[in-house]
Structure formats: C-alpha cells, structure tokens
Amino acid sequence: MTIAVSPQALPALVLNADYRPLSYYPLSLWSWQDAIKAVFLDRVNIIAEYEHSVSSPSFSMRLPSVVCLKTYVQPTRHPAFTRFNVFLRDKFECQYCGSPDDLTFDHVLPRARGGQTTWENVVAACSPCNLRKGSKLTREAQMFPAQKPYQPTVQDLHNNGRLFPPNYLHESWMDYLYWDSELQP
C-alpha cells in the first residue's frame, strides 16, 4: 500500500544499540523521513515495519516502525538542568500541594535570600503555592516540599517518564517499552 504521509504520521521508535529507547519522556521517536535517511546512511537496523510504504519510480520501501542504532550511544549520567526535567523529576506535581496545574519552579531557599538555581534548591510548584510562599523560607511559610530536591540521574527521569505514556503507542513498540502495567492501553 503506497500512501502520502505527513512528517508527524507513522514515527519510528528509536532504540539504542542495547534495544532500549534512547528516552522515555519524551519518547525517542523519529519522523519516517529521518528513519529512512538513517537506514540509507547505514546507521540503524530496521526492527519492525508499518504496513504502509513509500515509493519512487524505481524504489519502494515499507516504513520502519522500530529502528535500532548500530552504534551504542552512552547516555549522560546527569541530565541537563531544565524546567522540563525539574517537572519530570517531580512527576509534574506541585511539591507543596500536589496540583498538576499551572506549574512553575520555586527556589526552596529563595533567590532573594541567596538561593541558587540548582537541582538541590528548585522544586516544581503551582503558581498559587509559589506566590503564597514568595521569598519566605519553608518554615516561615509553613510549606514543605513533598520530597527534598535532588539532582536526578537519567535513570530517575526515565523511570518517572514511564509514568506518563504517550497518547499513541504502536503495537510494534510494546516489546521495547516498559510502562506501569495499570497505565498500558
């Protein structure tokens, strides 16, 4: 079956050479164009394919649904400090009230009092809690984070990412993904 496909349709799950996803959240996916380019550059092996194919006048190929890198990519031990990674570490919940809405980040030791923007001093906080705490210390505000802020490992973020499976999981990906059993579609 030959179809015209948009870049977002039919992505390929990208596995490291050890057959584990490069990342869980966001899930390591490539557009079908990038997957085909990597096949032609001999950088990946095709593990599974979609029923759909793409064709030119002289060539036809089924679209890869799972590809595996031929060369192992060593994951970094410590992920970059980003807003997204702080939210992922804190499971997208305010560390003061548990709300998943309107997240910001809060400096446990406020910047106005010398607090630094580091893994060990920043937590996810909803806007109302962040405003309520302001530049007070946790004991002054009587607001204490659910967990002490810490520098996560890549594995910590992968484990948390598994709590948030994407809306779309193709059946050919399931042997390579490990989500909490109650969250699987």
Protein topology:
Blueprint: E1 12-15, E2 29-30, H1 32-40, E3 44-56, E4 59-69, H2 83-89, E5 103-107, E6 122-126, H3 127-133, H4 138-141, H5 154-161
Walkthrough of the structure:
With 185 residues, the chain is α+β, with helices and mostly antiparallel strands. Helix content is 19%, strand content 22%. A 4-stranded mixed sheet has the order 2-1-4-3. Mean pLDDT is 89; it is low at 180-185.
In short:
The chain is built from five helices and six strands, in the order ββαββαββααα. By secondary structure, the protein is α+β, with helices and mostly antiparallel strands.
Keywords:
single chain, 185 residues, alpha+beta, four-stranded mixed beta sheet, two-stranded antiparallel sheet, 5 helices, elongated
